[in-house]
Amino acid sequence: MRIRATVAALTGTLALSALVVPAAQAADGPSVPKFAPFKANAPADEAVGDTKITKVTVNGGKNVVVGTTEKKKFTVAVTATDAEGIYDGDAYLWHGSDIDSDIDGLLFADEDSATCKVVNATTSTCTVTVTVDPKVDLYSNVMAGKWKVSAFAVGNDGDYIIKDTAGYASMQRSARLTTNASPEPVKKGKTLTVTGALTRANWETSKYAGYTKQPVKLQYKKKGAASYSTLKTITSDSKGNLKTTVKASADGYFRYVFAGTSTTPAVTSTSDFVDVN
Q1: In what order do the strands lie in the sheet containing 115-118?
Q2: Which residues contact 87 (CB under 8 A, 6 or more apart)?
Q3: Nearest partner of 86 among 120, 60, 57, judged by Cα
Q4: CA geometry: angle at 255 spanning 251 and 256, to 5°?
Q5: Does residue 131 carry a pLDDT above 70?
Q6: Is the separation of the CB atoms in 164 and 3 below 8 Å?
Q7: Long-range contacts of range 193-196, CB-CB < 8 Å, 24 or more positions apart?
Q8: What is the DSSP letter of 19?
Q9: What is the value of pTM for the model shown?
């Protein structure tokens, strides 16, 4: 079964029509209901019989990180149970506060039908692929963060369940981080200046811009050592730039590390080796 909706207009919030039509079913398949999640006054959730959705997994449980230009493809897996087994399932992502009246983002599956894998006689996991295009689907930075997953499952006996919020997904703005330590080489005991920049995708301009006022760790690893140690934590400035000083002690590697936020993933810069003589 496929969930389909017609988007009538997109001006601040989406004006959505109420057209959702299932694909043709096999002759021996169950009689599957039409599904109209955006119809005015439609029930928030709907269920007939004993079909249940037990789990929804987006992108293998990882955040969906999207840059400024490249499309991002990920999966949504819906696990459901029914006494007679599962016939089909489907899912889509939506962003907003209310599915009936306040939606500003929608992401539907790429395929016309899910790939359902039987777990046991009563349970199957149905998986679809979703592609997000930052230039088309993510027109505002406020769309970073939590998205809701609406899911559908139907049993072999025609029982079904519709859940407007069956799970959640995290959509994040891709981040970049740089490090440069100078001068190189440097005499032992002299001052090193370590600069860098923390930037992240701006979906409104399709460019990367400074991520301001964020804590970033400066780490150091002596040549031959197995791991890095944190020297200090500094804060990115009003343009996302980083700058601090340290005393040169021995040959080694410097890097900046950002822990991430709910809207932006963690990122570690490429290390910069400094020759101390």
Answers
A1: 52-58, 72-81, 123-132, 115-118
A2: 29, 30, 32, 116, 154, 155, 156
A3: 120
A4: 155
A5: yes
A6: no
A7: 193/243, 193/244, 193/245, 194/218, 194/242, 194/243, 194/244, 194/245, 194/246, 194/254, 194/256, 194/272, 195/241, 195/242, 195/243, 196/241, 196/242, 196/243, 196/256, 196/269
A8: -
A9: 0.84
What token pair was written down for 126? 């149905």
Confidence of residue 254 (pLDDT cuts 50, 70, 90): very high
Strand-pair partners of 182: 193
Q: How far is CA 159 from CA 6, 97, 128, 136, in A?
A: 26, 29, 21, 36
- Kindly report the average pLDDT of the chain as a whole number: 88
Model confidence over 171-188: pLDDT tens digits? 999 999 999 999 999 999
* Domains along the sequence of the chain with CATH: 7-172 (2.70.50), 175-274 (2.60.40.730)
Can you read off the two tokens belonging to residue 274? 């400094």
- Confidence tier at 9 by pLDDT (50, 70, 90): very low
d(CA 212, CA 219): 20
What average pLDDT does the segment 95-107 reach?
92
Q: From residue 75, how far is each of 38, 52, 144, 164, 266 by CA, in Å? A: 23, 20, 18, 18, 21
Q: Phi and psi (nearest 5°) for 100?
A: -90, -25
- Cβ–Cβ under 8 Å, residues 104 and 95: yes
Residues in the chain: 277
